[in-house]
Structure formats: structure tokens, C-alpha cells
Amino acid sequence: MGVLVIWTRNPSRSAGLAATGVVVLIAALMPPAAGAAGRYVATGDSVAAGFAASDPPTRGYVPLFFDFLKTRTGGGLDQLVNRAVPGTTSGGMRTNGQLAAARGDIDDRSTDTKVVTVTIGGNDALGGDCASGFGERDACPFVANFEAILRQLKTSLAADPGAEELLVTTYYNPSKGTPNEPRARGRLLGTDNVVDCAGTGAEIGLNDAISCRGAALGAIVVDVYPAFYESQEILISPDGLHPNDAGHAVLAAALRKRLATLPSNVFKVGRPRVARDGSVGFLADVPGPGTLSVRGSAKGIPVLGRARRVVDRAGRVAIKLRLTGSARAALRKRGKLRATVVLTYAPRGGTPRELKRTLTIRR
Length: 363
Known about the structure:
About 30% of the residues lie in helices and about 25% in strands. It is built from twelve helices and 15 strands.
């Protein structure tokens, strides 16, 4: 199995999420295997970089999550790129090359990126830029930066073949049981102490901003706050901020669990039926509510036609691709069209999946 690993570490081992020190890039590269199953790209700050784990490249949450992604259940991925940089803020991620490098990893056509994770914002909370709340856009740059990060990643993922999962994580409260717990809780949950999208100003904490803006932009939100809270004291390293090995294991488990709760996007499509007018009908078996769409193209004809259906239950659904006027004219002139048809099923609350078919449409 070919494995690509790019890792960043902060050798200072300083105690803060915002520690700056010299960042060292450690890269080990082996040629990718033929027919590589897919790539996982991780981004973020020192938490994603595995800071305070006994061995970040193997005991941080990113490699632990990758261990799951390598399994058949997790998708059989075979490449990991960790671009996380300790000390990074949301603004720094946009300007220090991390975001550009991650987009380059996704755009790499030698492999298909299947999963991207984003853990960013902890240093924004520690740095004090958002002291009046994460809802004050003029005073707090986090939301604008976070939205820009997700939009740019989604742009690259949209151009990448196949289906992908973009996951964003919230943050745990490292100060539970200490005098600083109320202040840290307020920074994460806002003054109303709940994660929701109804608050304003100081009521919006970091986790509110991550959850609400992440979901609005189509990311899968992984809320790690509850998973940490019950056993917080044994999950934090001696530096008082970062997860220890057990804490990183909890983070990885939260990601695995969140993926497991996504509705199934596995669907089947029967043989196409081509009508005399060139339209193409399909019968698809879908696992639940969502949308089913179809689009087609041919040489010199980027859009043969499109169709979309809303599905309200599991079962068999019929959908028909009707040719556009220009496509019908091309069919009359050529006599036949070698078409590529892509069917997409998007489960409600889940991620889309595509099936591609190649067929010949004759007059």
C-alpha cells in the first residue's frame, strides 16, 4: 500500500494552542499504489497536529481516525496528508500556506480525496480577538475566515472526482474543574452556555460559530464538547490545554461515530431504457428520502440534458433524462451519440453519491 504522510510539529512543546516556535515539516513519501483508494487531508492547529500526544504521527487524533478510514468500513483509504500547523489561527490558516497546500492536495489528480477535516479556532479564542463574542463580525475575524476556508475547500472538493466528506470539529473545554472553567466555557458556548444558532453578540461562542456556519456551508459538524466533558480530567495533558493520548482517542472516536450516523447514500441503478426521442429512462433503488438527479454529456455537447426528483421514502424511483434541443439536433445530424450519464443521489442530511454510466443513444 502506498502512503503519503506530511506532518507538522512544533518542537518547542510549549503549553499553548497558540505556541509559535519553529515549525518543522516532516514528510515521508512512498509511491502511491495503482488504483489508490483515496486520500484523507487533515487541516487545523496543534490539536489536529497531534500536539501533546506521546507520538503525534501515530497517537494523535488524525492518524487514529485514519486507522479507521483505512478499513473497509471506513472506505479503504490509503493516503494521509496532515497539513495542520501548531499555533495557527483561522486567519493564519488562510495566509501561511496551509490552506493553499490542502487545496493542492485535493486538486492532485493522481488520487481522489475522500475525507477532509478542519479543526481551527482554538487560537482565535485564546488570542482574544473575539473577546466580545464570535458573533461580532467587525471585531471578530473568525467567522469570515472560517467561511472563506470552508468555501475554498468546497470549491476544490467540487472539482475532485467522486464523493467527499468535509468534517469540522468543535472544541472541548480544557479548564473543567479549574477556576478558569467559567471563562473558557463562555468562550466556547457564549454567554448563554448553549450551542445554537439563535444567539447574537456575546451569546455566540466559538462552538456556536463552528457548528452554525459549518452546517450552513454544507460541512459535517462533529461536536466533541459532550464527549470530553464527562471524563475531562483524564483526557487533558499536563500542559492543561491539549489532549493526551486518551483525549486524542476520544476525538477520533467522535469522528468515527459521526460518520456512522450519516444516512446511507448507497443506491443502485438498473439498465437504461432509450426511447425513440432520445430520452433515457432509469429506475433507481434508493435507501431513503433525498434527491435523485441525472445529467448527461457527449463529445462536443457539454449538456445533453438534466433532470431532478425529490424522493420522500426508500424504494424504487423513475427518472428520465430528456435531451435538450441542441442535443436532439446533434442526434439527427450524427445518427448516434456516445453519452456519459451521471446519476447522483443525495440523502437528506447526508452526502451525495454518484454513479456513472456510458451508453449509446441512436435515432
